[in-house]
Write a structure and sequence with these properties.
Blueprint (H helix, E strand, L loop, with lengths): L3 H17 L2 H18 L2 H18 L9 H20 L3 H13 L6 H24 L4 H8 L3 H11 L12 H11 L2
């Protein structure tokens, strides 16, 4: 795991934000993690970014809380976050990965509409975070592989969000590149 101290901070703040129902802070924490994930391409950071973002989206939907299984899902999420925090504090990163995956695995114990909704949120979070990593300049192929999505899904989402139009992602025309090269060698 890269930047374990940062991941630990993110998870502790995520735990607190969940208890306070602070979805804005959850989204902010996810964005902080995605910056690190883009730089390091560390699967642990990517997993944290996806789960924290998913939790922000799930918590925004107040109607989810009325569905059967919500209380158990929420309780299990807090439990596995606590275990994940403890694992990082003990520098047991293999156990962290196992416990953190359990947050996602607890979705399988849900039933009916809640299971369907939460699975959909998780999938959309993967695609959304993949587009953010791609926006940071990581190739589409590498980004898709890191998040376990197809390049088609990533390209479709990136096309809708305007990521290719971000100035850093635009290719300069030949004349501009020659001018830039000339300036560099002067």
């Amino acid at each position: 795991m890269q930047e374990a101290d940062n991941v630990l901070r993110i998870l502790k703040e995520t735990r607190s934000a969940l208890e306070k129902n602070d979805t804005f802070n959850l989204r902010s924490l996810s964005n902080q993690t995605i910056n690190t994930a883009s730089l390091t391409q560390d699967p642990d950071n990517i997993a944290v970014a996806v789960i924290v973002y998913s939790l922000s989206k799930i918590m925004e939907r107040l109607d989810y809380r009325q569905l059967p299984g919500w209380k158990k899902f929420y309780k299990n999420t807090l439990l596995y976050l606590d275990k994940s925090i403890q694992d990082i504090e003990n520098k047991d990163y293999a156990k962290f990965r196992e416990d953190f995956r359990s947050i996602r695995g607890s979705v399988e114990n849900l039933s009916g509409k809640l299971k369907k909704y939460v699975k959909e949120v998780l999938r959309n979070a993967e695609i959304n975070k993949a587009s953010r990593i791609y926006e940071h300049g990581i190739s589409m192929e590498q980004t898709a592989r890191l998040l376990g999505i197809s390049q088609y899904e990533l390209a479709e989402h990136a096309g809708k969000t305007g990521i290719p139009d971000v100035p850093e992602n635009r290719t300069r025309d030949t004349k501009s590149r020659i001018k830039l090269a000339m300036e560099m060698f002067e």
